Amino acid sequence: MPARRSRWIDLGFALYCVSAFAAVTWPVYAWTGNRIRPFVLGLPLSLAWIVGWILATFLALAIYEFWGQRR
Amino acid sequence: MQGSAAVVATVVVYLVVCTVVGLWPSKGARNAVVGYVAGDRSLGLVLMYFITGATIFSAFTFLGMPGQACSQGAASFYILSYGLLGFVPFYFLGPRAARVGRAHGFVTQAEMLAHRFRCPRLALLMALISLIAFVPYIALQIRGAGLIFDIVSGGAIPTWLGAALVYTVVLAYVAKSGLMGVGWTNVLQGVLMLGMAWGLGLYLPIKMYGGVEAMFEAIAQARPEMLVAPGLAKRIAESPQTPWTWSEYSSAVLVSTLGFSCWPHLFMKAFTAKDDRTIRRSVVLYPTFLVFQIPILLMGFAGVLHPRAPSDLNQIVPFLLLDAQVPAVVIGLFCAGALAAAMGGDAIGHAAASIAVRDGVVGGLGIALTPEQQRSWIRWTLVPLLLAAYALAMWWQESLVWLLLFAYGPITQFMPAVVAALYSRRATAAGIVSGLALGIAVTLLFVVRKDLRPWPVHEGLYGLTANVLALITVSALTRRADRSHDERFVELAATRDS
After folding, report:
1. Is A40 an interface residue toward B (CB < 8 Å)?
2. Are B267 and B51 in contact (CB under 8 A)?
3. Does B457 reside within a domain?
C-alpha cells in the first residue's frame, strides 16, 4: 500500500479516537447522547449511547487492524 | 440463609476446579524465569484475551460496581467510558515493547525503561511505586473473597477464614505454575463471570420489575437524576449527596484512558504474547469484554428503587438475590462468579512478586541471580506479599480504599515515560526521572489537598501535565548518555515483524 494512503488510514483512526473520546465526555455527550429517552433495547439513551460507541470502537479497531495487515 | 449448604457447596466445587486448572499447567512449564513470568513468550489469542480481560474484572466489578450504580447512578458510566479507548494505546505500545523485550529478555515494564535510559535506579523506583499500589489492591480482593464466604455461609465461615482459604489456593497455583496457571484460571474465571453477569443481569430486572425497560422506566419516573451523566458524587459521611461535576467526570475519563495501558501488571503482558499480531488482536477484542460490564450495572440499577438497602451497598446484589428468594444454586453461582472476580488478585500477585524480584532485587539492587534462582525468589516473595495484603485486608479496613486511591494516582504517571522510551530518541534519564517525580508529587499533593486545585478536574491530569512538561524541558537541557544506544533501541521498537 502506498505510504500516502497508509498515512490517511492512520489519520482516520486517530480522528475516530478523538471523536469517540469527545462523544462520551463533556460537551458532546452532554448535548447529544445524555438523555433518558428514547430507550434503546431497554436501556436509557445515556447508557445505550456509550454501549454504541463501545461496539463502534470494536469495529474501528477491527477495520484498522485489517488495513494494517494489508500494508 | 436458606439453602446455604447448597450455596457453600457450589462455591467450594468452583474453588476445587480452580485449584486443579491452576496447578495443571505447571507440568509443561520451563524451569526458567521467562517461562514463569512471561509464559515462555508463547501466549496465543485466547489466553491473552482472557488475561487482559480479567484485569478489568475484580471484586470491585461484581460487588463495588453494582453498589456504585445503585448509589451514584450514571456516575458509574465513567467506567465504561474510559474502557472504551483505555486499551487502544496498548495497540501501539504493546508490539513495540514486545520487540525490544524479545531482543533484550525483558519481562517487566521497569526493566525495559531502566535499559533504555541506562538507569537501574529507575527500575527500583518503579518497583516501589508498583508494590505500594499492588498490595492494597490485592488486599481489597482478599477482603472481597472473604466477604463472599461470610455471606454465603450466613456467617458460619467468617471473613478471615474464607479469605485465607481462597488465597491459599491462589498462592498454591501461582507459586506452582506461574503465568500459565494464572492464564488458565483466568479463562475459567472469565467464562464463569461472563455467564453469571449476563444471566443474573437480565434475571434480576425481569424478576423485580418485569423487564429491563420496565426497570429503567420506573427509575426514570421516580429518580431521573440517576439516569443522566455525570450522575451523583460519592456520598461523604452523613452530608447530602450532590451531583458529580462534568469537569471531574470528563477529566477522570481522560486520565484513566491515558494511564490504563501502563498499569504494570497489564503492560507486562506485552512480553508474554507469541507475536505482535496476538497483542494487536487482543486489543481489538478488548471492547467485547466491556460489554459484559453492562449486565453488572443492570444488577446495581435493580436496587435503586428497592425499599430497603444493606448498610454496605457493595453487598447490594447478594442482598437483592436473597430478597427475591431465587434458588440457592443461583446465589451459589453468583457468589462463585464474584469469587472468580476476587481471585483476579492472582495476576496482580504474580506481577507484584515478579516486579519485586526482577526490578527491585536484580535490576535496582544489582544482586546477580540465575534464572532458576529468580524463579525461586519470585515464588518465595509471593508469601510475604500475600501475607502483607492479608494483614492489611483484615486489620486496616477503614483506610483501604483511600490507600488504593492514593497509590494508583502515581501509576498513571508511568505513561509519558513509557511513550518516551519507545518513541523518542531525545528523551534522557534525567528527563524521565524528573517527570515521574514531579508528576507523582503534584498528583499526591492534590489527592491530599483537593481544595488547592486551580480547577475542579482530576488530580492525575495536573500530575500528567507537570510530568510531560518536566520530561520535555529537562530532556532538552540534558545530554544523552549514549546517542547510538537510544537510536538502536527506538529503531528496534519500530521494526514490524508481522
Report:
1. no
2. no
3. no
State the pLDDT confidence band at A27, using cuts at 50, 70 and 90. Answer: very high
How many domains in chain B? 1
**Cβ count near B187 (within 10 Å):** 17
Asked whether the beta carbons of residue A25 and residue B249 sit closer than 8 angstroms, the reply is yes
- Does any CB of chain A come closer than 8 Å to the CB of residue B88? yes
Q: What is the mean pLDDT of residues B254-270?
A: 89
Is B493 among the domain residues? no
Cell representation of residue B261: 495501558
| pLDDT surpassing 70 at residue A69 | no
What number is the ipTM of this complex?
Answer: 0.94
Q: Is the CB of B84 less than 8 angstroms away from the CB of A50? A: yes
CB contact under 8 A, B84 and A43: no
The confidence score (pLDDT) of residue B196 equals 81
pLDDT digits (tens, 9 = 90+) for B16-62: 888 888 887 655 555 567 777 777 777 788 888 887 877 666 767 77
The Cβ of residue B385 has, within 10 Å, a number of other Cβ atoms equal to 22
- Chain A hits for B249, Cβ within 8 Å: 25-26
Question: B138 is in which domain, residue-wise?
Answer: 4-411
Mutation target to probe the A interface, by most A beta carbons within 10 A, among B49, B82, B85, B90 is B85
Residue B119: C-alpha distances to residues B126, B329, B430, B433 (Å): 11, 55, 9, 9
The CATH number for B293's domain is 1.20.1730.10
